[in-house]
UniProtKB/TrEMBL annotation:
GO terms for molecular function: cysteine-type endopeptidase activity. The keyword Aminoacyl-tRNA synthetase does not apply. Transmembrane segments: none annotated. Residues 55-111 form the Cathepsin propeptide inhibitor domain. It holds the Pfam family Inhibitor_I29. Residues 1-24 form the signal peptide. Gene3D superfamilies: Cysteine proteinases. Coiled coil: none annotated. This is Cysteine proteinase. Keywords: Disulfide bond, Glycoprotein, Hydrolase, Protease, Signal, Thiol protease, Zymogen.
Length: 379
């Protein structure tokens, strides 16, 4: 009895794959992903043949220009490598969509150098500056909503673009304080990252390379420490972003948001969700290795390190991300990035969560919450 039923199930699965190309392409990931990393397929040859046409389209779409023919040839070679890399990422991460992005002409090293910038250890994160960070108290988790998104409640500002500056940490910091200030004042102020880039040089003396350093990297908890000492953060309008290190022009009379306190959240998804719902968007670190080729969907790579190299903003979570390979719902975190609206899902990234994935890409490892000083609601 069991064998005919098994055959029927296999036939049904085969029919589904034939009828639905998305399912068929996702099923390629069934092979051992470690093998897929080193063994190509026929489609890779097709990518090779069409690389120049794809590259020409890429250059037009993203307005790329290169100084001479040699640079153009070099970037075409890098682009060809990234086509292969995107294909490997697709096999390792079948519930997301990977392909050509605006970063497809950059080597992995160039991408890390220019567009990441979280360069501190978890020890520094936990300590904060002079021990000023403390553990967030445990919150009740009963009755948490199954889905929650601060964008729907007015606490999230527009997607921004850090440009070729390793200042992701400042966008994570400002985004968290924007949300906290909204909860405290009732008004969403779009805050300045450039103030942090120019003026925040807080250090942990016990840690080498643990100083916030503008386009050369930083950490959200030390940035919160700087803001608590400096008095607060100006608006983006008053202190606009330039994407480069400059002299500090902070004007204390123009402070728009003030830090009351900040905490580090335990590596526990329920506590992270509870802090998100109670305190607003959270500043987090993540391993961004799969983000260079990410286009959309719920990212849930089979293999992803937990070395944290990018600061982003956690704004919500969902429970209905469809994963065709596994034929079930895949819950996810909703992350606001700082690479502009022409990356990812209009500037956002989804990464899987839940007991079966356990801190995918380190997304639960470096989470901090901030509260703002309460003032009367502004008109």
């Amino acid at each position: 009895m069991a064998r005919p039923r098994l055959r029927l199930l296999l036939v049904a699965a085969a029919v589904l794959l034939l009828l639905h190309p998305a399912l068929s392409s996702a099923a390629e990931g069934l092979e051992d992903p470690l093998i897929e990393q080193v063994v190509g397929g026929d489609a890779e040859n097709e990518l090779e043949l069409n690389a120049e046409a794809h590259f020409a389209s890429f250059v037009r779409r993203f307005g790329k220009s290169y100084r001479d023919a040699d640079e153009h040839a070099h970037r075409l070679s890098v682009f060809r490598d990234n086509l292969r890399r995107a294909r490997r990422h697709q096999r390792l991460d079948p519930s997301a969509v990977h392909g050509i992005t605006k970063f497809s002409d950059l080597t992995p090293d160039e991408f890390r150098e220019r567009f990441l910038g979280l360069r501190k250890s978890r020890r520094s994160f936990l300590k904060g500056i002079s021990g000023s960070a403390h553990d967030a108290p445990a919150l009740p988790t009963d009755g948490l909503p199954t889905e929650f998104d601060w964008r729907e409640h007015g606490a999230v500002g527009p997607v921004k673009d850090q440009g070729s500056c390793g200042s992701c940490w400042s966008f994570s910091t400002s985004g968290a304080l924007e949300g906290a200030n909204y909860l405290a004042t009732g008004k969403l102020e779009v805050l300045s990252e450039q103030q942090l880039v120019d003026c925040d040089h807080e250090c942990d003396p016990s840690e080498p390379r643990a100083c916030d350093a503008g386009c050369n990297g930083g950490l959200m908890t030390t940035a919160f420490s700087y803001l608590a000492k400096a008095g607060g953060l100006e608006t983006e309008k008053d202190y606009p972003y330039t994407g480069r290190n400059s002299a500090c022009k902070f004007d204390k009379s123009k402070i728009a948001a003030q830090v009351k306190n900040f905490s580090t959240v335990a590596i526990d998804e329920d506590q992270i969700a509870a802090n998100l719902v109670k305190h607003g968007p959270l500043a987090i670190g993540i391993n961004a290795v799969f983000m260079q080729t990410y286009i959309g969907g719920v990212s849930c790579p089979y293999i992803c390190g937990r070395h944290l190299d990018h600061g982003v903003l956690l704004v919500g979570y969902g429970s209905a991300g469809y994963a065709p390979l596994r034929f079930k719902e895949k819950p996810y975190w909703i992350i606001k990035n700082s690479w502009g609206e022409n990356w990812g899902e209009s500037g956002y990234y989804k990464i899987c969560r839940g007991p079966h994935v356990k801190n995918k890409c380190g997304v639960d490892s470096m989470v901090s919450t901030v509260t703002a000083i309460h003032t009367s609601k502004k008109e």
